[in-house]
């Protein structure tokens, strides 16, 4: 009995799956947070550092903040683990499809015509799904990253608001980054990064203790 599947077409789809699967998952930049801490550390603050036209101004170096925030580092590991989990799942699905496809090529001639047609329809449907699997899994990782980014920013903003309310009462607190900072220079005397970082880490430490 002759196997009626369009082997060339299915083979091309299979090769395409192997070529593109998970390329979109490699090198995803991870900045993340899962939840906003509820307790606030008592960060020690100095007097307002800079006055400009009656406004008190300070800034936070967010590159330094994110690189040393223990909560962010812990959640980076969690997101990486999630990405690896999705990648492993996708590879497993591709390998299973390959095995089933090769098994059909080997043993399909022993099937009845109706069995061949049913198997071919199943393999074709699975092959088409494999072609879009990489994008689906990458989208899941990206969605989780975006959600954690939002929680991260909300947590930092909330802490800074409380810090400013209880301490120096700056009129403006700027964000400084290496790539996207709107300023070319800021007086180091305006830098309150360490105070904010110490307060956030203390808050996270206390939160972890309360959860233990």
Question: What does this molecule look like?
Answer:
With 212 residues, the chain is mainly α. The protein has helices at 7-20, 62-68, 70-107, 113-166, 193-211, and strands at 50-52, 55-61, 172-176. A 3-stranded mixed sheet has the order 1-2-3. β1 (50-52) and β2 form a beta hairpin. α1 (7-20) packs parallel to α4 (113-166) and α2 (62-68) packs parallel to α5. The model is unreliable at 1-7 and 9-46 (pLDDT under 50).
How do you describe this structure in short?
This protein has 212 residues and is mainly α.
Distance between the termini: 66 Å
Tally of helical runs: 5
Instruction: Give the low-confidence spans.
Output: 1-7, 9-46
Relative helix content: 55-70%
Helix/strand structural class: mainly alpha
Would you count the extended β strands for me? 3
Shape: elongated
Q: What's the Cα radius of gyration?
A: 27 Å
Main sheet specs = 3 strands, mixed
Q: Provide mean pLDDT, rounded.
A: 79
Give me the side-by-side strand order of the main sheet. 1-2-3
The ordered string of helix (H) and strand (E) elements is HEEHHHEH
How much strand?
A: 5-15%
